[in-house]
Amino acid sequence: MILRHAFSRERAVELALLTGPLLLLGIGWRSLAAAGFELPGSMARIVTQAALCVIGMHAASRLVAPRARPEPLPLVALVALLGIVMVSRLAPASASQQANWLTVGFAAFTMGLAAGRMPNRLRSLTYTSGLLAVLVLVATGLFGETINGARLWVRVAGQSVQTTEFIKAFLVLFLAGYLADAGGALSRPLPRVRSAAVPGAVYVLPLALVLAGAILALALLRDLGSIALLLLLAVALVYLATGRVAFAAAGAGLVVATGVIGYAAFGHVQARIDAWLDPMADPAGSGYQSLQATYAINAGGILGIGLGRGMPDVVPASSTDYVYVAVAEELGMAGAAGVALVYLALLHAGLRVAAEARDSYCRLLAAAVALLVGIQAAVIIGGNLRLIPTTGITLPFVSYGGSSLVVNLGLVGLLLGLSHTARAESVSPAP
Question: One MF term from GO for this chain (predicted)?
């Protein structure tokens, strides 16, 4: 049955759409060479390896999730292969490692596909996922290593693993499962205490404990970017699960309050916000990164100065936190807008998967995956464009970093698995 559906129209459309990302990879490679940029000596292997990973993900979707929507994988491939090109441009010594992480991500994607076909088993792990998120945070605090002032990495087999990326995945599973169970009760009229509607503690306590534990641990680890991302995701999911504007408003207030507390309690948060508000106050210090990013974007103009022809090295962390600035400088605001539209299209595709789901758990889980990627992209793009303060999180699939790439590809695989499950159920004959 699966082999018969492996040649479905959806997979044919997916294969056709994948020609775009593969062409982008080849054009990017040749453009860097034409610009006289000194490419990694193994660039041909890197390009071939990346292309084979994308083709492998397509083959896996044919075999494991043949009925899944065709749009998400080509969109992800577009930004992931752009990431290979940009890392080769910005950090040539790391390009081979990024391609290796993409290969590991291919395995995670395949496992995500399989997991998405077993939503009931995933749902049974709801509270286990929440507990794991807190335990991994504690382990990171005890055994992690501090890099750039944040204690977010653990050494595993000689590699630095950013555990907060895995914690986000655990919290996605927890939030979807918990809200699928409690969302109905929370959406009903609430008991009133002195004329104020108050949700029952039995429904709120598990969510509050896990979120409070995660936020406290992340604050101690100095990862304020992940706190903002987690809170925004939780607010969006609570609103989707309950439809109650009051909960969304309370969550938004919590986000603002967390920002105020972070500004007052953490010097590096205060420095980032001050540099965002007035980078010229300390142009050689805290405002340097923001100013150089602004100059680079202005230099790129509308169409950019050409791939490999800019000076992204003057912007600190150009291959990680500020990779979007490098895109804007060399591909212009037209190219940068195109990248933003890819993330918007991916968010739309993920929410369409959620809309097709047959039960509340699958609907919330698909929405959580889509919103996690979408919110993270919006936060990093907004920070790079100085619309909001920078947060230190990375641009999904594009920035250099193995943990982020592997986890996000696994979540996209999960999204496609859920899509296959929903579509297969919609055409199943009635008993």
Answer: lipid-linked peptidoglycan transporter activity
